[in-house]
Each structure stands twice: as structure tokens, then as C-alpha cells.
């Protein structure tokens, strides 16, 4: 049993070393989701802000493309009417007194 | 259960293997180094600076990331590589001096394979995933 204990200690040291190297330089305040997930979440909140949260199949949201860093093109359908919007993930907010921030109407064509 | 655990010879072998694994990890992560130059050096002190500092201004630093330091030099081994999201964008993860640093390769630079020893120099940023990232203005596989 002594060798088993030594094995477990050594494996624990391996895991501890790798975790320490991986975590030591990270910014603990910057554990962000992947950009696609952030964009999907913001797009869903935009759909709700457009009144599309209670119309079932007539309402939908789709990520069209990533235009450039932090900017996504999304297509929103509310009661059968579709339009494309550009989301700026860095400035997106639904807490503005006059509506949404970080959302702009856009063509559905992807321009690069 | 007790019989399965009561195998001293087996556990002696696993202990030796675990010790070898630990030694390998220590050796692999200890080699190389990370040097960070936090501020742009004053104009009057070029003699005191390492020669690689000259490469810190040979490119245009990106503006979409938080800059952590004026410049950094990472020397270590490549442990991973990713392409995108831009068409010519390639990042590699480098371990050296007990640090993990991402390196954004210059556009068009060939992607070093796993285990390649590289040196990269450039401004230091905070990558989107929270790690530190060097935007390589100079890159040399060794």
C-alpha cells in the first residue's frame, strides 16, 4: 500500500504542476465563454427585446456569420418578418433607457 | 478490492512510471524562458537593453485586445496550434520557463509542428480566453 500512496502522490504532483503552469498567468476575471456562445446569447436577448419571445415557430434567431472580432451578423425573425442585425459583443446591452445598445441594422450579405 | 490493491510490485512499477512522468513534465516546462518588458524603454538607455528589443517595433500592434506589456520574448516548445478565426490567423501555445503563452504568428508564417522549439518576440496582450498572448513580430523555429 505504501507504493500505491507514492504513486498517487506523484500523479497528484503531475496534475498540480500542469494546473499551476496553466493557471498562473491567466486573468481570473476573464473567464469568458467562446465568442459564438456569447453571440448566441446576445442574439437571443435581442429577440426577446424585439418581442419575439412568445410567438413560437414564427420567431427565430440565427447566427449568420462572424464579421470581425466581437461583431456578429444575426438574422432575426419575428412573426414571419426577417431582418439582419449586426451585434457588437463588446458594447451589447439591453439595459439602455432607450432600447438596445450594440445592435445595428445590417444587410444580410456578408462583406469582408 | 483489497486483493486488487495489495500488489506491491505493480504499484512499485506505477510509482516509477509516475516519477518518470513528473520528471518529464518538469524538464519539458522548465526549458525556455519568458522575458517581459513592461514599458517602452527611454530613448537614452539602448545600451542596457537586450538586442531583441529592436524587434518590438517591427509591426503594428493589434488594438482589439488589452495590452499587458510593451514587449515580451518567449522561448519554449509548441504544445498546440489553432487556425482562425481569420483566414491567415494562426496561434500556437508555447510552454517555456514554467509559463504557457499563446503566440499569434505573423501572417503567412508556417505553423510550427508540435514540440518545435521556437522564439517569438512582440507586444504582450491578454487573449480572449484569459491567457497571455504575444503578437509575434519576430519568430524563429529553433
Describe the structure.
The complex is a heterodimer of chains A (112) and B (142). Chain A is an alpha+beta fold. Chain A has two domains: 1-29; 32-112. Chain A has two helices and six strands, in the order ααββββββ. In chain A, the strands form two sheets. Chain A has a four-stranded antiparallel β-sheet, with helices on one face. Chain A has a two-stranded antiparallel ribbon with strand order 4-5. Chain A is elongated and about 70 Å long. The relative contact order of chain A is 0.13. The model of chain A has no long low-confidence stretch (mean pLDDT 84). Chain B has 142 residues and is of the alpha+beta class. Helix content of chain B is 19%, strand content 37%. Chain B has two domains: 1-29; 33-141, OB fold (Dihydrolipoamide Acetyltransferase, E2P) (Beta Barrel). The A-B interface holds A 1-4, 6-7, 10-11, 13-14, 17-18, 20-22, 24-28, 30-32, 35, 66, 69-70 and B 5-6, 8, 11-12, 14-15, 18-19, 21-22, 25-26, 29, 64, 85, 95, 98-101, 126, 128-132.
Notable characteristics:
heterodimer; A: 112 residues; alpha+beta; 4-stranded antiparallel beta sheet; elongated; B: 142 residues; OB fold (Dihydrolipoamide Acetyltransferase, E2P); 2 domains; 5-stranded mixed β-barrel; 2 helices; 19% helix; 37% strand
Distance between the termini of chain A: 63 Å
Low-confidence stretches of chain A: none
- The name CATH uses for the topology of the largest domain in chain B is OB fold (Dihydrolipoamide Acetyltransferase, E2P)
Q: What general form of chain B does the structure show? A: elongated
Helix content of chain A: 25-40%
User: What is the approximate shape of chain A?
Assistant: elongated
How many H/I helical runs of chain A? 2
CATH superfamily of the largest domain in chain B: Nucleic acid-binding proteins
The span between the termini of chain B is 50 Å
- N-to-C SSE series of chain A? HHEEEEEE
The overall average pLDDT of chain B, rounded, is: 87
| Number of individual domains of chain B | 2
Largest sheet of chain A: 4 strands, antiparallel
Q: Which parts of chain B are unreliable, with pLDDT below 50 for 5 consecutive residues or more?
A: none
Helical segment count of chain B: 2
Number of strands of chain A: 6
Oligomer: heterodimer
Shape-level CATH architecture of the largest domain in chain B: Beta Barrel
Amino acid at each position: 500500500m505504501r507504493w500505491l500512496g507514492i504513486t498517487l502522490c506523484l500523479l497528484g504532483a503531475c496534475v498540480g504542476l500542469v494546473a499551476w503552469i496553466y493557471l498562473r498567468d491567466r486573468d481570473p476575471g476573464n473567464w469568458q465563454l467562446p465568442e459564438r456562445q456569447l453571440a448566441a446569447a446576445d442574439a437571443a436577448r435581442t429577440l426577446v427585446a424585439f418581442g419575439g419571445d412568445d410567438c413560437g415557430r414564427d420567431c427565430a434567431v440565427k447566427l449568420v456569420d462572424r464579421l470581425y472580432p466581437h461583431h456578429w451578423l444575426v438574422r432575426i425573425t419575428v412573426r414571419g418578418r426577417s431582418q439582419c442585425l449586426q451585434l457588437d459583443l463588446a458594447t451589447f446591452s439591453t439595459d439602455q433607457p432607450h432600447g438596445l445598445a450594440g445592435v445595428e441594422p445590417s444587410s444580410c450579405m456578408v462583406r469582408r | 478490492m483489497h486483493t486488487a490493491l495489495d500488489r506491491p510490485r505493480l504499484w512499485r512499477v506505477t510509482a516509477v512510471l509516475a516519477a518518470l512522468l513528473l520528471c518529464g513534465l518538469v524538464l519539458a516546462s522548465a526549458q525556455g524562458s519568458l522575458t517581459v518588458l513592461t514599458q517602452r524603454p527611454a530613448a537614452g538607455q539602448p545600451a542596457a537593453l537586450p538586442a531583441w528589443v529592436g524587434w518590438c517595433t517591427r509591426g503594428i500592434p493589434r488594438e482589439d485586445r488589452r495590452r499587458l506589456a510593451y514587449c515580451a520574448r518567449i522561448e519554449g516548445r509548441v504544445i498546440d496550434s489553432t487556425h482562425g478565426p481569420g483566414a491567415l490567423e494562426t496561434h500556437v501555445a508555447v510552454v517555456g520557463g514554467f509559463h504557457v503563452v499563446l503566440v499569434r504568428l505573423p501572417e503567412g508564417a508556417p505553423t510550427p509542428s508540435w514540440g518545435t522549439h521556437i522564439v517569438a518576440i512582440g507586444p504582450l496582450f491578454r487573449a480572449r480566453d484569459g491567457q497571455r498572448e504575444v503578437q509575434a513580430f519576430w519568430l524563429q523555429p529553433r
